[in-house]
Amino acid sequence: MDKISIPIGPQHPLLKEPLSMMVDISGEKVLGGSLRLGYVHRGIERLAQQRTYVQNIHLIERICGICSHVHTTTYCYAVEALLGIEIPPRAQYIRALMCELERIHSHLLWLGILAKHIGLDTIFMHTWHDREMVLDIMEEVSGGRISHAANQIGGVRFDLDEEKGEMIRKILIKLHSQVEGLLDVIESEPAAIARTKGVAPISPDLIKAYGVVGPIARASGVDVDMRRDASLPPYDQLEVKVITHSDGDAWARTFVRVEETRVSLNLCETIIREMPRGDVVVHAPRRVPEGEVIIRSEAPRGELFYYLRSDGSDKPARLKVRTPTLAALSLLPVQLSEINVADIPVVLAGVDLCIACADR
Amino acid sequence: MDKIKKRFTLLNAVVEAMIKQPETIKYPFAAMELPEGFRGAIVFDPDKCSGCGLCVRDCPAEALHINKKSREEYTLLHYPARCAYCGQCEDSCRHGAISHSNKLVGATTHKDDWVLVFKDSKASQE
Amino acid sequence: MFRSLFHLLVFPGFLFLVISGLTFEWLDRKFLARFQRRVGPPWYQPLADLIKLFSKEDLLPKNANDFLATLLPLISLSSVLTAGLYVPIAGYTPFSFEGDLIVIIFLMSVPTLAYYLAGIISLGIYSVLGGGRSLLQFFSYEVPLLIALSGPAILGRSWSVSTIMETQGRLGPFIIFQPLGFVLAVVGLIGKLKRDPFDIPKATSEVVGGSLTEFSGAKLGFWNLVMDIQAVVGIFLLIDLYFGWIKMSHPILAIAIFVIECLILILVLSGTSAIFARLRIDQLAGLGWRILVPLALLQIGFVILMGV
Amino acid sequence: MILTNIIQRTYRWAQKNSIWVIHFNTGGCNGCDIEILDLLTPRYDIERLGIITQASPRHADVLLCTGPVTQQTRDGLVQIYSQMPSPKYVVAVGSCSNTGGVFVNSDTVLGGVDKALPVDIYIPGCPARPEAIIEGLLKLRERISNGDAN
């Protein structure tokens, strides 16, 4: 059969964000593919140099709408490290709570997208409905469903009272049973297993060669988790269970993400239970002394890396963000060979693309 | 036994959903419920404003604009179509003059009509 | 003359089939919505969709053959409407003759072939892919479907649907004798209608809109109508062949039973699409030839033994 | 005369009650996109208002844009718009696609969707809440039933 190239993107039902792929196929077999990035390049790193540290919080929140909070958290930790201030433990715990809620929301969202791509719309609807509970919590405590604006330099914007803590705990318990059900489905639903098991396996060597992080790496048996490894506060005081799987295929990625949701739910409960009392914010000056700093944290998609250099003014001299998706994207053409055309959605979903993160 | 039960989780969920009421909100046909802290439309208290312009300085989206003739004569403009609804102006204001209400900002057909003039201090004095 | 015209245009012809097709689409979407905890569309939704499509601009790619692109949905529509004329509805069949089952099966296959051609002539890359897939899928489901449908014909000793129904009046509904055949026929019908889990030719995430990606306006409206009418004709046929005609003292009671049987079958179809993931084309071919065909042959063997 | 009037009114009714939407992210942050996807899910379920998403631009009536228009996506946006059959409408969802939002002054961002296409409805918010999007689409329905289009 002749080789044909099918374009995927910039507008394609598979992609929620613009990305252009040319996939060479022959019949129903994929021979290879190439990527074109840059559609979502908004010049955020350069914009950040023109704006003050305070304005940058809100700019950086809009790097990505799904993992918005972890971006600002990492940025704030970076600025606070340069300023030499330590935020109160309660603020650290609230930041971590939001991070974990965001991870749950991101993973559930991802699972829904995967299910939608393989034609299981019911799972998409049910997980996204469960996800609404998480969004409800985040909106109730911070005032925004997607962009929470929870952080400020020197702490967080809001405090949790007993009543809200109780409400969160109630919702989390409800969510727990739903996630158990999802786990049952991905473990035993034959159609879902048939579509994901053995699809595009990645070996640990390849993961290390491409520098892929996050759930994809963990699904291939590479044990990295910045919550444990970078030990940003308050994760140094919390026990984080790192989920790994040895198969490295699409099913293993699904399994790892759903298990991580469960771990995050438990972590949320621990955080609420052990949350120390006290202030949630300390005063931070607007001008940041000269210096440079690197902060790493664990976003829902993997390691998030921030480099910040200050020249002593109220604007950063350089802000560099390395997001987990970029590494995963570089692995995509490798995965897009020797698979079936019908597996393209599974592979793409398995990577958990966040092009807004990758392009910035 | 447990395995068989797991196998039918999805079917169970589907049948349950069929029997139960749908989870859809009634929104366009009924009033919506927004939480207390939701960051919606900007509200402004002209009496408290001192015209210092801190909110304008910190706004990340250039949604606030101040036309200042003198200390007492100024106009504060707000462009809802630019606003990021981030709450920074509320944080930056030292007098509590500007804040978010939990009202939704409605859609419009002409975004240029949208500039909300908040305060014209000269006009208010006259 | 007037009677024939009434049969052609109103019942069981054009108007009845269009209305029942739209009703089927609404019921299907509503059931699916309820399975997914949603409210679902209002009753007039399919009608509004259809009228809206007729009011839209009709676009096609520059080099596409406009004449064929117009002709293909019309051919498909006329063939499914004709098939609808021969399928007894609640036992009422004005045009019955010996061998109409074969005619129905043949006419029901026309839309699939037209769908394939529509994909090829509209020159979009996804359309070509979708068209090719629909043909591949055709080869996978059609054989088990044909074998399964010949079960009632062998048991009824006739290729006429109304005769088969009469035999069922004597022997009892054929679903009792060939439940496996009924399941296979439903699976084949799902394949024919390109519904989830066999919606491979029009899988949104893989080939965008399948063959119909480049169609818009009235042509798309006709195609949607074809799919709906194909679905109701298929459902009526399965009900006729497997549940038969239960003789009732009152005709209204009989019609009510027919409607309830249809509703249950629609519920089964919607439920199937709600709980199954889409198969890959190789998995479908494997399922069709390795599992469905042997099972269908088994059922036929059983039926022949019973007939002897 | 009366007949054309009736036909026109029927068409308007149908167009109003059946809005097929295609969604294109012109370079946004995902926030509005997931809120648009949220509209399909049980809590908001816009199918009850006759709105469904379509994959192919040829099937769509409304182009839902999210995010600021970047230099890279502008051509794609115009191309998708040109593939849609008329009458067609454009809805800009979120502050970014209204005016550029927080990305104002960026070198690679052109600004709002109105820099490339005529926009019918602007929906503010960052991200726009699902309720706000529903309200905007209802406003669009009014526009359709009045027969205004760009």
Summarize the structure in words:
The complex is a heterotetramer of chains A (360), B (126), C (308) and D (150). Helices cover 51% and strands 14% of the residues of chain A. By secondary structure, chain A is α+β, with helices and mostly antiparallel strands. Chain A has a single domain, classed as Cytochrome-c3 Hydrogenase, chain B (Orthogonal Bundle). In chain A, a hairpin with a 2-residue loop joins strand 2 (20-26) and strand 3. The radius of gyration of chain A is 20 Å and the shape is globular. Chain B has a single domain (36-125), classed as Alpha-Beta Plaits, CATH 3.30.70.3270. Chain B is built from five helices and five strands; from the N terminus they run H-H-E-H-E-E-H-E-E-H. Chain B has helices at residues 2-7, 9-19, 54-58, 88-92, 121-125; strands at 42-44, 64-68, 74-78, 98-100, 116-120. Chain B starts with a helix and ends with a helix. Chain C is mostly helical and 308 residues long. Chain C is 73% helix and 0% strand. Chain C is globular, with a radius of gyration of 19 Å. Chain D is of the alpha/beta class and 150 residues long. Chain D has a five-stranded parallel beta sheet. The model of chain D has no long low-confidence stretch (mean pLDDT 85). Chains in contact: A-B, A-C, A-D, B-C, B-D, C-D. Chain A binds chain D through residues 10-13, 16-18, 38-44, 46-47, 50, 58-59, 62-66, 68, 109, 124-126, 128-129, 132, 145-147, 354, 356, and chain D through 22-35, 37-38, 40-43, 55, 57, 67-68, 70, 72-73, 76, 80, 96, 101-103, 105-109, 126-127, 129.
Secondary structure: elements and pairs:
The complex is a heterotetramer of chains A (360), B (126), C (308) and D (150).
Chain A: E1 4-8, E2 20-26, E3 29-36, H1 44-50, H2 53-61, H3 68-83, H4 89-117, H5 121-142, E4 151-152, E5 155-156, H6 162-188, H7 190-196, H8 204-210, H9 215-219, H10 226-229, H11 250-274, E6 291-299, E7 302-310, E8 316-322, H12 324-335, E9 339-340, H13 344-351, H14 355-359
Antiparallel strand pairs in A: 1-2, 2-3, 3-9, 4-5, 6-7, 7-8
Chain C: H1 2-9, H2 14-35, H3 45-55, H4 66-86, H5 100-121, H6 125-156, H7 161-171, H8 179-192, H9 204-207, H10 217-243, H11 251-275, H12 281-307
Helix pairs in contact in C: 2-10, 2-11, 3-10, 4-5, 4-10, 5-6, 6-7, 6-8, 6-12, 7-10, 8-10, 10-11
Chain D: H1 2-17, E1 19-25, H2 31-38, E2 51-53, E3 62-66, E4 69-70, H3 74-83, E5 89-93, H4 95-99, E6 109-111, E7 121-123, H5 130-146
Parallel strand pairs in D: 1-2, 1-3, 3-5, 5-7
Antiparallel strand pairs in D: 4-6
Helix pairs in contact in D: 1-5
- Total of helices of chain C: 12
Average pLDDT for all residues of chain A: 83
Q: Name the helicity range of chain C.
A: over 70%
Share of helical residues of chain A: 40-55%
Order of helices and strands of chain A: EEEHHHHHEEHHHHHHEEEHEHH
How much of the polypeptide of chain A forms β-strand, as a percent range?
A: 5-15%
Mean pLDDT of chain C: 83
Write the element-wise H/E pattern of chain C from the N-terminal end onward: HHHHHHHHHHHH
In terms of DSSP E residues, the strand content of chain C is: under 5%
What structural category arises from helix and sheet content of chain C? mainly alpha
Question: How many structurally independent domains of chain C?
Answer: 1
Named CATH architecture of chain A: Orthogonal Bundle
Number of helices of chain A: 14
Low-confidence stretches of chain C: none
Strand order of the largest sheet of chain A: 1-2-3-9
Sheet of most strands of chain C = none
What is the CA-atom radius of gyration of chain A, in angstroms?
20 Å
Find the biggest chain interface: A-D, 37 and 41 residues
